[in-house]
Specification:
Layout (H helix, E strand, L loop, with lengths): L1 H5 L8 E3 L2 H13 L10 E3 L6 H7 L13 E4 L17 H11 L1 H10 L2 E6 L8 H5 L3 E8 L3 H17 L7 H14 L13 E3 L3 E3 L5 E5 L4 E5 L14 E5 L3 H10 L3 E2 L3 H7 L1 H17 L10 H10 L1 H7 L1 H15 L9 H4 L4 E2 L6 H10 L5 H7 L1 H9 L3 H13 L5 H9 L4
Parallel strand pairs: 9-10
Antiparallel strand pairs: 1-2, 3-4, 4-5, 5-6, 7-8, 8-9, 11-12
Helix pairs in contact: 7-8, 11-14, 16-17, 17-18
Length: 428
């Protein structure tokens, strides 16, 4: 993983923590979670406060995610809201953290001036043993604490202020007034600084989870759809009257679900011709075939002319695979008819020519699911399915790893927003 780390393809865009007072605050949160304080003089954190360096030091990459449920968080600064989440068992952890920090920005701004905020994203279950445990999670609650108990002191001061306003003789209570002064030295003027988070409960909607080998949960008004390995405990047995179960191995069923629920854009000229989507897919297919034919080939000098020559010289292998000829035929049909007759396409190949509807709430999750059916497109895997990409990467040869990194640097990393917008219609 060193090559990925050096090129900021793993643990990229994290926030450096090297100021002694912030390290001291982080250690207070670690101690509250039952860990020894770090001896590091600097480290990096993501939106949740997860640090790969701390994880390596304590030899536990799940130190903020025990049992893959009830995710812990450590907030040192409001700036964490702009960071990615790089290690999680649930794909919606990032969105939940963003909503919590957005809704409670005033309190977080004020608290982190003096203190560290930490706690758990508390679910309704403490462990996950089968699918029913996952489906029982309808909402989460942020349990929020602070090392210096600024939250508790602000709450106490608020109660005393209310008493002072409501009880006519309360101002005569010198002990109460002294306590208020003592508390105000820590909290400041709570009339100006909102120190207690206003909103801590949030909906738990569609998501991917790493449990049971990877599982997707999509939520619609009348039905919840679970997509995963049929061997997962509880598959087709948990709430069969209100949950639809689809095998991740059944490309036809998964595609029909995505199409019928309005989550994908079918291959039409309106978006295909200007996006370069089919051309991108075709290039990824060819690169994958090159890797399969010669995993140790040095591809550092590959350009489009070289790729075209390789295609001509390896026509038999390309035709046997079938994806490259299919994409060329699809491009011609869309150019002539304005669309592709998707019902005539093999189920597996349908995923080569569709993308998530950009404005659908589940667009990122849907693109992630599509990437599971198109493993040859390592760029899409990296963009939407980093856990899947990193797993694939472990099986790559050294030469192929270098090539993959070079392609990602010259395509996606060069301008992420423009790349996502052109191919997938997504804007931040």
């Amino acid at each position: 993983m060193d090559l990925l780390r050096d090129n900021e393809l793993i643990y990229g865009r994290l926030l450096p923590i090297d100021e002694p007072h912030l390290i001291d605050r982080y250690n207070k949160a670690l101690k509250a979670f039952g860990f020894k304080p770090t001896k590091l003089k600097s480290f990096h954190v993501d939106r949740t406060g997860f640090s790969p360096e701390i994880a390596e030091e304590c030899k536990d990459y799940d130190y903020l995610d025990p049992n893959g449920i009830n995710r812990r968080f450590i907030i040192l600064t409001p700036a964490q809201i702009d960071l990615p989440v790089v290690h999680t068992a649930f794909s919606n952890t990032s969105q939940l953290m963003f909503e919590f920090m957005s809704k409670n920005s005033r309190a977080i701004d004020a608290l982190t001036i003096k203190d560290v905020i930490y706690g758990e994203i508390e679910d309704s279950v403490s462990t996950v043993s089968d699918i029913e445990d996952l489906l029982s999670i309808n909402q989460v609650e942020f349990r929020v604490l602070s090392a210096e108990d600024v939250l508790g002191k602000a709450s106490e001061l608020g109660t005393l202020v209310d008493r002072l306003k409501q009880e006519p003789d309360a101002w005569r209570d010198n002990k109460m007034l002294e306590r208020m002064v003592e508390l105000a030295k820590v909290t400041g003027d709570i009339r100006e600084n909102a120190l207690v988070p206003d909103q801590v409960i949030f909906r738990h909607n569609a998501y991917w989870t790493s449990h049971f080998g990877g599982l997707y949960v999509f939520v619609d008004p009348d039905v919840t759809t679970v997509i995963g390995d049929p061997a997962a405990p509880g598959f087709r047995r948990s709430r069969p009257w209100q949950v639809s179960y689809l095998s991740i191995k059944d490309a036809d069923a998964v595609f029909r679900f995505l199409a019928s629920s309005g989550r994908i854009e079918l291959p039409r000229a309106s978006w295909i011709e200007n996006s370069g989507y089919l051309e991108h897919r075709a290039e990824m297919v060819v690169r994958n075939l090159i890797w399969q034919a010669d995993p140790d080939r040095n591809l550092s000098s590959v350009d489009k002319v070289w790729l075209q020559t390789w295609i001509h010289n390896n026509a038999s292998a390309i035709n046997r695979d079938g994806d490259f000829p299919f994409l060329n035929a699809a491009k011609r049909e869309i150019g002539q008819l304005g669309q592709l007759k998707i019902e005539d396409v093999q189920p597996r190949q349908r995923f080569l020519v569709v993308r998530a509807k950009p404005r659908h709430a589940d667009a990122w999750l849907t693109n992630r699911l599509i990437s599971d059916f198109v493993p040859s497109d390592f760029v899409s895997r990296y963009v939407f399915n980093k856990q899947g990409f990193y797993k694939d990467y472990e099986g790559f040869s050294g030469a192929w790893r270098s090539h993959v990194v070079d392609v990602l640097k010259t395509t996606y990393l060069r301008d992420k927003d423009a790349f996502r917008n052109r191919l997938y219609g997504l804007t931040d």
